[in-house]
Amino acid sequence: MSNNNLLTQLLMLGVGTTSLMAEKLREVTDQWVKDGRLDADQAQSFVNDLMQQVKSEQGNFETQMQRQMRNMMQDLGVPRQAEMDELRGRLDRLERQVRQIEDRLWR
């Protein structure tokens, strides 16, 4: 399983868990409204506040996962995109130089 696939699956699991939690939270607050424990405005405010906190924490989780993934790839010796681009540029220059030398030799 690729690291990208694993990260995608983890993020999708987080989204699914958040959606399920939001659904259950709405069910509970609807029941509280029916029971008279909360009025509708309080229930909506409670749900909104809690979901905002979850979204904030989820963003932190995603940032931490990305940082962990970068560290892991660095530990494994996987080059960053900037390093690959630099190497491609160097390779292109070397190939041009080899062609120029070959052209001079065959004249």
Structure description:
- With 107 residues, this protein is an all-alpha fold.
- It has 2 domains: 74 residues; 28 residues.
- The protein contains 3 helices and no strands.
- Helix 1 runs antiparallel to helix 2.
- The radius of gyration is 27 Å and the shape is rod-shaped.
- The two termini are 53 Å apart.
- 1% of the residues are buried.
Layout of helices and strands:
Layout: H1 3-35, H2 40-75, H3 81-105
Summarize the structure.
The chain has 107 residues and is an all-alpha fold. It folds into 2 domains: 3-76; 80-107. The protein has helices at 3-35, 40-75, 81-105.
Query: Are there runs of 5+ residues with pLDDT below 50, and where?
Result: none
N-C termini distance:
53 Å
Going by helix content, strand content and strand pairing, the class is mainly alpha
Strand content: under 5%
State the helix count.
Answer: 3
Total beta-strand segments: 0
List the domain count as a whole number: 2
**Percent of residues in helices:** over 70%
Give the biggest sheet. Answer: none
> What is the gyration radius calculated from CA atoms?
27 Å
- What is the H/E order? HHH
